[in-house]
Amino acid sequence: MSQLGLLPRRAWTALLSQLLRLPCSSCIQAVRCHSQVAGAVLTSQLKAHQEKPNFIIKTPKGTRDLSPQQMVVREKILDLVVSCFKRHGAMGMDTPAFELKEMLTEKYGEGSGLMYDLKDQGGELLSLRYDLTVPFARYLAMNKVKKMKRYHVGKVWRRESPTIVQGRYREFCQCDFDIAGQFDPMIPDAECLKIMCEILNGLQLGDFLIKVNDRRIVDGMFAVCGVPESKFSTICSSIDKLDKMAWKDVRHEMVAKKGLAPEVADRIGDYVQCHGGVSLVEQMFQDPRLSQNKQALEGLGDLKLLFEYLTLFGIAEKISFDLSLARGLDYYTGVIYEAVLLHTPTQAGAEPLSVGSVAAGGRYDGLVGMFDPKGHKVPCVGLSIGVERIFNIVEQRMKTFGEKVRTTETQVLVATPHKNFLQERLKLIAELWDAGIKAEMLYKNNPKLLTQLHYCESTGIPLVVIVGEQELKEGVVKIRSVASREEVSGSSGNRRDKVFLPLPDFLRNMYLLAEKLSSWLIVVEMNKDLLQITIAACEYWMGGQKKGK
Amino acid sequence: MSQLGLLPRRAWTALLSQLLRLPCSSCIQAVRCHSQVAGAVLTSQLKAHQEKPNFIIKTPKGTRDLSPQQMVVREKILDLVVSCFKRHGAMGMDTPAFELKEMLTEKYGEGSGLMYDLKDQGGELLSLRYDLTVPFARYLAMNKVKKMKRYHVGKVWRRESPTIVQGRYREFCQCDFDIAGQFDPMIPDAECLKIMCEILNGLQLGDFLIKVNDRRIVDGMFAVCGVPESKFSTICSSIDKLDKMAWKDVRHEMVAKKGLAPEVADRIGDYVQCHGGVSLVEQMFQDPRLSQNKQALEGLGDLKLLFEYLTLFGIAEKISFDLSLARGLDYYTGVIYEAVLLHTPTQAGAEPLSVGSVAAGGRYDGLVGMFDPKGHKVPCVGLSIGVERIFNIVEQRMKTFGEKVRTTETQVLVATPHKNFLQERLKLIAELWDAGIKAEMLYKNNPKLLTQLHYCESTGIPLVVIVGEQELKEGVVKIRSVASREEVSGSSGNRRDKVFLPLPDFLRNMYLLAEKLSSWLIVVEMNKDLLQITIAACEYWMGGQKKGK
User: Fold this and answer.
1) Which of A338, A425, B325, B365 could form a disulfide with B379, with the two C-beta atoms 3.0–4.6 Å apart?
2) Contacting B residues, span 336-365, partner chain A, CB-CB under 8 Å
3) Are A522 and A480 in contact (CB under 8 A)?
4) Which family does the record claim for this protein (chains A, B) (predicted)?
């Protein structure tokens, strides 16, 4: 099959890929941008005079398309997240987009009302998944899996009022990592926090802080402050708003709307304004009220151990024990955490401003048992990365710094300066594809050379392989670097080093040359029907002209 | 931050990754398999004596979870498909899982009844997407994009009676590649067929054939055979069944159920049993009836040109002009194609047996115009890869040959033979993670060494980094190859080559050594708090013992 005789196909491909890496990576260029899509609201407004005024093309409320530009950014974020999950030994997994409705009920508290139900079309009652955690617990129970470290990247759907500026959509992507199984305390929990740090550092989102608390401390705090047990859940919801609302407003809600005694609210107020490191844990151990509560003491004991592990992981300074952290979801039973990005304050000395949660999670030891017919529990702890919000921040940053992305990875355009060269272009491009080279050509019988070169410039293709009358006669093709406009052809004589060495030797030369050379060029020689690939590394081969400039 | 002083972090990481590639790739081992999931029907049957007899944990009808084992196979297939799409210069894109119902109506013919509608919860009427083609056309029209080469990998949903043995699900993944824009005829169409060949060759699914026809030839054939125009669509549906039903049954359906005159059916019968290469195209040009039909002649003219390009691409022998190919979807307007896998016939001389379509597509020049308020057309041609069916074939093949996959990529387990070494393990593993090494440890305070080694064997982790009392005293760690049980430690003296060279030199040595050496070992030395990484390449360093065996 191979027409690339001199080197074995695999070696040849590896070699050329190696070469192509150099011009490619230095060539991040602007490409045509479907900027209509980039905006937030995707309704295509029709004007009054149009023929079909009732017909509005749009995506459903709270959803959006991702344009190729956005897709590149999204993929980069997901790659970084997934490679971190894999670094920590997680396996991949997938579940259906919808579940039997009964699997999802009574798992989300107030969130249940936000589920998308499918129409009853005869058969089962179904709902789109609301998160990836409940399907994971269902999977564990269904398959009687007692131990598993998995990640899952997928879309989830929530019928919330979309406030798109904040990066909240009704359809959004989640990246979850969870550790299921009975283990010694706090070791998996500490790893989850380590993962959050690695990802947030890796994404270079700026300074961040991870707030940590424990559901048992929250409940213990309510108990010792005198919250009636029937009000635990609703007061917990109020407390959860403290990252968006001031204490006095939350207090007002608890007292005026939820009927909490003012002195109870004030006692809570004393606690929820506390945040700090491991010393605050020690301090709470000594707290006259909290230290009387068994649940709270268990939570504090675990947090103390957690901080010990976080110190060994070198991330303790990123973690803040924060008594105001409550987390909305019903299923948490132990440690809970939430990562927030910090803006540099505008005024010196001012408190850093929180720009919202970008990752969160916690321990949920009871959820799997809710699915198991015998109620067998599988303790779990995990985290979820908020991709949409991170995406918005990265996109914003790219806009600010004028960063552009290439939306394709094409390495070579096959072009011709002459008419009636379609056949040669088709033959040549097929050879390139078969060799694993990312190649394009214009779908025209007789495109103009200038059009072809412009296409490269606008899409960021770094190299053009040109075949014309002269080249065909000589059995060569011309290679042109789009950025430098340098050209080389197979007939250019002794400036070329033919490299037909075994791979190790080749690579050795490669790196020696890479230190010395400014540009790499590839010469594709055609000898009859045999396409031979020659690698030519030419240092300043047009140096004379360059100096003249 | 970096505690890996001697080499810059990036160089060090690259270097270690390079090293790790060797032991890793040779270590595809069996891992624990959630085999309950691997089967097709995912209902967890409960026994009569259980406590909650009404509670059945399952996924919705026609859907399934993907276990980690299945996920690895799926990802491999998708990677190959997507890298082919990128090789052809396609950009990525995404659309929401659901669309406004009105966007999807009147696009799929008989398929429309199989759409999943969402419940009307106040707001818009929504349906889950039925394919990726109609959302693509909606995207083009909405954003007024006139030219685009994109791929899209995503789930689609169809309420078909699931016949799971055939790999048909109600939720399934599609991989689409499409070229939108006004170009010279048949160049993009030929590229679509080239892509199908590259993917099917790449997946090594065995011999295959791509059937090609043109909607205009189908319509022309109906016209010249005397099918009334009102019956074109329903007769087309019957013809489409010829890959599953014998001609006499299809004929019976057309005559008895659909009221076609028997002599008309017989005329069709003469055509639809024709298949062949470009010579059949020539033959049909001469056909006394078909050559009278303008539409058919246009289709034949395009097919002739198509075959010319396919020959230049070197794939003409894989393509069969097949007059029985009709394709179910309404929106096709020109060339249509479908790839089928061929089994070697059991009896010599017998016709190769078709095992069903694994990829298909065609030209749809009118679809975008259906969304455009002014009806502006954007010609399109594309293809869709049937991932589920391919997945089933690959999974079956792996079962047959007993191939196993690793579900994690973990390179190193951090282990200890002694009690009270949790702190050292935590510190060490954090260093490895921070250096980009994929590392795990058991979440136990005091795991047994044997348990730790068994974990490596069962999950395919190739290396163990052992830290114990002796190692701690000497400031080293011991490295053990799980497969060969060889060990080396930082204190083993002059058999080690410390490699602290700049990267090019290092790589040069690397490849020289790779030819000579049988095993690679990594030694991690701990000097006080500084973790220094030394690369040791020891040829038969335990050679004496080996020979003795």
Assistant:
1) B365
2) none
3) no
4) Belongs to the class-II aminoacyl-tRNA synthetase family.
